[in-house]
C-alpha cells in the first residue's frame, strides 16, 4: 500500500530491556543493522500492524512486552535513487516510507526472541546496544528519522527509572571493542557505566 505521495505506511519498533539497552537487529544476509519495522496492510490498524510485525520479525507477542509509548505523527524518509523500483503496470512508485513508531519494554525472557517465525526472515542476528547507539549506526538515509524518534522516546523514558541513566547520555554511541559478527563475545563500553559490560552477540 503506497500513498498518493509515493510513501509506504510503515511501523517502527524500539524494544528496550531492563538495563536501558535497545534491541538492534542485523538484516538477513547483510552487514546492515536497524530496528524492526514493516509495512501496514490495507485496512489494518496501526497498533495491530505493530504487533504483527513484532512477531514476524523477532518472534515476540503482546504478552512479552509492555507498550510504553506510540509516536503521534508520521515520520518520513526517502529511499536513495538506486533503491527506488521502477513503476510496473498500475502500481505507484514507492519513493520512501512514512512511519509511526512504538516504544516497548521486553518483560519476558530474551530467550523468547526468535528470528525464524517466517519462511523469509528479516533478520539473522541481534544484540543489545546502548540507547543512542542506533542514531549514528543506522544507514544514512534513515538517520534523521532515528534521531527524531529517539529524542521523542528519551523524553518519555526520563519517567522510567530503569532507563534514566541510558537516555541522559546525549547521542553517545556504544564503543564496539571487538567485532560482533562472530559467535564470540563482543565487549562494549557503555557511557553511563564505569565498568565494561560483556554482551554476547545473538544468532538465531
TrEMBL record:
InterPro entries registered for this protein in UniProt: Nudix_hydrolase, NUDIX_hydrolase-like_dom_sf, NUDIX_hydrolase_CS, NUDIX_hydrolase_dom, RppH
Superkingdom, taxonomy of origin: Bacteria
Family annotation (CDD domains): NUDIX_Ap4A_hydrolase_plant_like
Enzyme class: hydrolase
Molecular-function GO term, any one: mRNA 5'-diphosphatase activity
GO CC terms: cytoplasm
Residue intervals of the Nudix hydrolase domain: 6-151
Protein's UniProt name: RNA pyrophosphohydrolase
Species of the source: Haemophilus parahaemolyticus
Gene of this entry: nudH
Amino acid at each position: 500500500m503506497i500513498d498518493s505521495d509515493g510513501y509506504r505506511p510503515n511501523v517502527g519498533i524500539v524494544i528496550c530491556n531492563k538495563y536501558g539497552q535497545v534491541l538492534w537487529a542485523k538484516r538477513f544476509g547483510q552487514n546492515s543493522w536497524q530496528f524492526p519495522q514493516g509495512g501496514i496492510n490495507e485496512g489494518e490498524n496501526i497498533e495491530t500492524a505493530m504487533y504483527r510485525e513484532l512477531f514476524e520479525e523477532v518472534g515476540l507477542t503482546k504478552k512479552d512486552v509492555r507498550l510504553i509509548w506510540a509516536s503521534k505523527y508520521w515520520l518520513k524518509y526517502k529511499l536513495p535513487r538506486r533503491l527506488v523500483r521502477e513503476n510496473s503496470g498500475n502500481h505507484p512508485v514507492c519513493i520512501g516510507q512514512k512511519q509511526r513508531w512504538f516504544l516497548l519494554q521486553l518483560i519476558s525472557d530474551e530467550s523468547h526472541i526468535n528470528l525464524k517465525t517466517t519462511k523469509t526472515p528479516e533478520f539473522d542476528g541481534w544484540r543489545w546496544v546502548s540507547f543512542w547507539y542506533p542514531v549514528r549506526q543506522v544507514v544514512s538515509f534513515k538517520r534523521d528519522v532515528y534521531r527524531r524518534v529517539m529524542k521523542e522516546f528519551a523524553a518519555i523514558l526520563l519517567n522510567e527509572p530503569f532507563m534514566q541513566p541510558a537516555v541522559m547520555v546525549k547521542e553517545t554511541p556504544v564503543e564496539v571493542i571487538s567485532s560482533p559478527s562472530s559467535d564470540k563475545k563482543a565487549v562494549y563500553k557503555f557511557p553511563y557505566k564505569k565498568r565494561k559490560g560483556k554482551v554476547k552477540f545473538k544468532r538465531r
